[in-house]
Design goal:
By secondary structure, the chain is an alpha/beta fold. The chain has a single domain, classed as Rossmann fold. The chain has an eight-stranded mixed sheet, sandwiched between helices. A hairpin with a 2-residue loop joins β1 and β2. It is globular.
């Protein structure tokens, strides 16, 4: 006999299966495209913001960079994380795959360490509304590039300053350019270069999710 208890169990099991097919607003999917990572929210939105992140040398691989980004950002935006030395021709191909069929709103472009070089070199191809430099490497020639109020920079690790042997002059010059343009630059007292990505994403989490 199909009694009330049996029906209740059946209804609960059916409801659980149905709910399991519904994407969680607190989850995202990951695919690998070459050496890059593409992270997409499991929930569907009418419009997605695109965040392109360049990693750094050595330990700062796309997989490591992903761990530095809060879930609140990964669950709401299309995030493309590429190696610091990924050529633009390959990066744009990855971006096209990531955004195919999606309605894209704002674009943000960020670079950590050696990825800072790439951000400054390719920013004109994307016209981003947010440009993030995370304890970045900067060529002296790049100090001549135009800067806007959309720039955000966090810098200050002794290791990065010492690499260039100019007592941090390229950073103070870039900082002045950013502030003069209405952007934001902060010097951190943290001596550990590896801590900067998490600190940056915490600092600008709300702005990136705006």
């Amino acid at each position: 006999m199909f009694g009330a208890t049996t029906y209740l169990k059946f209804f609960r099991n059916r409801k659980a299966k149905k709910m399991s097919k519904t994407p969680s607003v607190n989850s995202h999917s990951e695919i690998k495209v070459g050496k890059s990572l593409v992270l997409t929210p499991d929930s569907e939105f009418s419009k997605y913001d695109l965040i392109v992140v360049y990693g750094g040398m050595h330990f700062a691989t796309p997989a490591w960079m992903k761990k530095q980004i809060p879930d609140s950002i990964l669950n709401r935006n299309i995030v493309v994380i590429v190696p610091y030395n990924d050529p633009w021709s390959r990066t744009i191909g990855t971006i096209k795959k990531a955004t195919e069929g999606k309605n894209i709103g704002r674009t943000s472009l960020l670079g950590y360490s050696g990825g800072g070089y790439m951000v400054l070199d390719v920013m004109q191809h994307l016209t981003p509304s947010f440009i993030g430099l995370i304890d970045p490497s900067i060529h002296m020639r790049q100090l001549q590039f135009p800067v806007t109020k959309n720039f955000r920079m966090l810098w200050g690790s002794p290791g990065m300053i010492d690499i260039f042997e100019d007592n941090g002059q390229r950073y103070t010059k870039m900082e002045k350019k950013i502030k003069d343009a209405g952007g934001v630059s902060q010097r951190s007292s943290d001596s550990n270069h590896g801590n900067y990505p998490k600190a940056f994403f915490r600092l600008y989490e709300k702005e990136l999710n705006a």
